[in-house]
Each structure stands twice: as structure tokens, then as C-alpha cells.
Amino acid sequence: MTSRGAVGRATTAFPSTTGVAYLPFLTGCFPGRCNVPSIRWLDRQRYRGNWWRERNHVRSYCGWQAGHIDTDIAPAARTLFELIPDSLALFTPITRGLSAGRDPTQRARRFWGSMGHYLQWHQPGDDLVSRRLVQSIDQSWRFIFAQFPAVDGYTHQKHPSAPRVLRALGRVDAMVGKLRARIAARDESDDTLILLVSDHGASPVHTHLDLAAWFRTHHVRPLAHPTLWTRNPGVAVMVAGNGSAMLYARPNEPRPERWPLQRLRAPGAFGTDEDIIAALVAEAGVAFAVAADAEGGLVVVDRDGEARLTMTNGKLGYHPLTSDPLALGGTLVGNAAEWLRWTHDGQWPDAAVQLWDQFRAERTGDLVVVAREGWDFRDAFEVPEHRSGHGSLHRAHMLIPLWSNMPLPPGPHRSVDVFAQVLDWLGESMPSNCDAAR
Question: Could you count the other beta carbons within 10 Å of the beta carbon of residue 187?
Fold first, then answer.
């Protein structure tokens, strides 16, 4: 980067996983505002237990339903591709607003995505994006978005510092060098903005706590991918990343409202007489779980007790009751910018804001479960096995690089602020219904 640029870190959105975590810098909105709360979710208002007829009400962006994410995004959230018609995207998982000519690698993305997953060979996708990106910089696009999948793919297979991961990172670095050289050769006064950002972090996984299997041991029938039909399930388990999960109680019984924690703890809520919440948070791999309460707030529960999240006059409050799951040391009340400053360098960066956003989405489960670092929530059907992962709220997953060849506003930053930076650089106005800070 040039001497006038910026090298730093930002926080991503929750869940910190591919696809969903692209929404902030492509729409300026957190996943909850987009009503796309995770890579897997269930429509509690419409699903009645007939998987074949109602299969689209049990969503997963990890397979054939991946393209549905564009139509699932709330209509009010507009993508950069819609706001900037002369934009190009390479390997983007979000395509809303793009014509075929502005999305030339989508078919290749599907092919290499499948090949990379099953053959554990991700570099060809990155190489294709690099070639197309360097070629495209000389064309008349105002905005180009490019995704490089290899680092994430290789990280899942081994370790964030594995040789294949480092080689893939080195190739991205070399591509950025070629890009800058090409821009400089074209015009030394060129003011092209280059932003390099990740959708999430990652950390090694030493233990799998498969939540679907865990519920079976507690005599609760789970509905979970890829086994999407179970007679009279007591819970639907929707895992993301795999460091977090959304749980839906009695998924075969359609209802408009989310059940509060008090009801989820009651005997019979999941088809068992056990307080399943207490048993779940007692597990070594579970950091905490979050549910709504009857008063309109949220309750954060860990093995030691509870804390509450409330919203009053635009101020988000955290109130430890019998425990301090977010490790904040006491009560805090503030706006979104204050929360980012207070927690950016902490154990759970921006957790309060991100959890509140999660429960803005109608599609969010009754309970959100967050894993401790080193653990994840999926094992039996995860092929290949994840030896590293993401999706949680701890700092290894939430902190991401944010590098720019031009100065950035004073930090700390969220990934959602990239959306505002792009529009500001292009002289475009920002939609009013955004979470981005300008």
C-alpha cells in the first residue's frame, strides 16, 4: 500500500460466516436488518413438516439454495450493484442488481466452488479472479467487487497458518501488487480506491460438539441439514460457520412469534421435561446462548447465570444480573458507535450490537447459541471435516483486516462501513436505512 493508505482491523458482522458476512459491505446493513440472519434458517411461520412441499422454508446457502440469498434479502436493502449500475463483480455470492455481463464468473464460481469443496482444491478460483480483475481495471467500471475463496477453503481444511493458506495469501498479495502497478502505469495521478477486506476471521477447531447429535442424547428429535425430515422434531438446528447455531423449538408447529427464554426453559418446550437451556450452556463448548425475554429485551445466558440487553431511546444497554457472559465487567449503556469503541479490543468485539441485530430478523431462531473458541457445532455430516472454522462472536472470528491505499476516517471500523466508504469515494449518496457509519 502507499504511504498515504491505511492498514488496520475492523469487526465483521454476526454470524461471522461466508455469504451472510458479505451483506454489510455490499448493502450497508447488518444481516438482521437484511432479514438474512444466517446461512441456514427455518421459516417458523410457514414450515409445517412436509419437507418436499415446504423444502424452501428450510433454507441453506451451502448448496442448491445458494442463489436464493438475493431474493431473501429484505427489499429495502439495496446492494452496491443496484446503486452503481456501472459496476462489475467477480465470484460474488451476492448478485442482486447485476446483469449477466456484469457478473461474468458466476458459472465458474459454481463449478470451482463445488470442485474446491469436494477435491479440497481452491486455488483455481482465486487464479481466475486474479486474471479477470487485472484485465478489468483498464475498463470503464466505476466499482469492481472481487472475492478470493482459497484462503477460507484451505483454512477449513487445516489451520489458519497452514502452508496452503499462506501460499494463497501470498498470491493475493502478488495480485494486489500487479493491480497497483497497472494503475500507476495508466496514470500516476489515478485516484482509484483499493479496499482489501475479509468477511470473517478463523481459528483452529479441536473439538466438535455436534448439536443435532447432542439433542438426540437428550431425547429430543432434531431437524438439521442434511437430514431434513424427521417425524415430530422437537428442535431445528441451523449451524453457521460452524461456530454458532440458531435453534427453533417444535419446528413443525407454525407460529408468527419467537418464544421467549421463560417458555424455552419450561418442561416440554422441546418435547422433553428437562430444562434444555441449562443443560446446553453447561457444555464446555458453549460460551453462551441468547433468547428474547417477555419484556422486549434479550437474555444472554451462560453456565453461571444471566444478563439482559435492552434498548431505550436508541441506547443499547447491557445489564449483568447473575452473570457477565460478555465479560464487560458491569452495566454499559450507549449507542452503536460507543459500543464499538468499548468492545473492539475485547473478548467479544461488538457482541451486544450484533446480537441485538440478530433478533431484528423475523427468521432468527428462538435461541442463538455461540461456541467457545476451539469448538464448533457440526461434525457428523461435515465433509470435509472442519479443522478450523468461524461463525462465532469471539475476537478470532470477528476481527478482520481492513486495508486501503487511501486514508480512511478515524476508527474503529465495522465491515459495514466499507459500504459507506465506497459510496463516499464515488460521490454517491447513501440510503437512509443503513447501519454503516460515514
Answer: 9
Q: Among residues 342, 339, 333, 372, which one has the least CA distance to residue 353? A: 339
Q: What is the pTM of this model?
A: 0.96
Shared domain for 234 and 369, answered yes or no, is yes
Contact present, 388 and 219 (Cβ < 8 Å): no
The closest alpha carbon to 164, from 403, 387, 396, 390, belongs to 387
Cis peptide before 251 (omega within 30 of 0): no
Average pLDDT over residues 21-40: 98
Q: Where does the pLDDT of residue 184 fall: very low under 50, low under 70, confident under 90, or very high at 90 and above?
A: confident
Does residue 438 belong to any structural domain of this protein?
Answer: no
Q: Are residues 157 and 292 in the same domain?
A: no
Please, are residues 389 and 373 in contact by the beta-carbon 8 Å criterion?
no
Residues in the chain: 438
Distance CA 6, CA 214 (A): 45
Mean pLDDT of 296-317: 98
Instruction: Give the residue from 10, 4, 145, 148 showing the smallest Cα distance to 436.
Output: 10
Bridging pattern class, strands 399-404 and 6-11: antiparallel
What are the backbone dihedrals phi and psi of residue 81, each rounded to the nearest 5 degrees, phi first? Answer: -70, -30
The CATH number for 124's domain is: 3.40.720.10
Question: Per the domain annotation, does 431 fall within a domain?
Answer: no
* Number of structural domains in the chain: 2
Residue 313's Cα: distance from chain center in Å?
Answer: 27
CA geometry: angle at 333 spanning 327 and 336, to 5°? 90
Residue 316 grid coordinates = 443499547
- Do 284 and 175 share a structural domain? no
Confidence class for position 1, pLDDT limits 50, 70, 90:
very low
- Report residue 299 as a C-alpha cell: 437474555
Using 50, 70 and 90 to split pLDDT, how confident is the model at 178? very high
Both 181 and 239 in one domain: the answer is no
**Helix/strand/coil (H, E, C) string of 304-336?**
CEEEEEEEECCEEEEEECCCCCCCCCCCEEECH
Domain residue limits at 298: 207-389
Co-location of 403 and 336 in the same domain: no
Mean pLDDT of 231-252: 97
| Band of residue 358 on the pLDDT scale cut at 50, 70, 90 | very high
233 and 326 in one domain? yes
User: Looking at residues 198-204, what average pLDDT do you find?
Assistant: 98
Q: Which residue has the higher pLDDT, 42 or 6?
A: 42
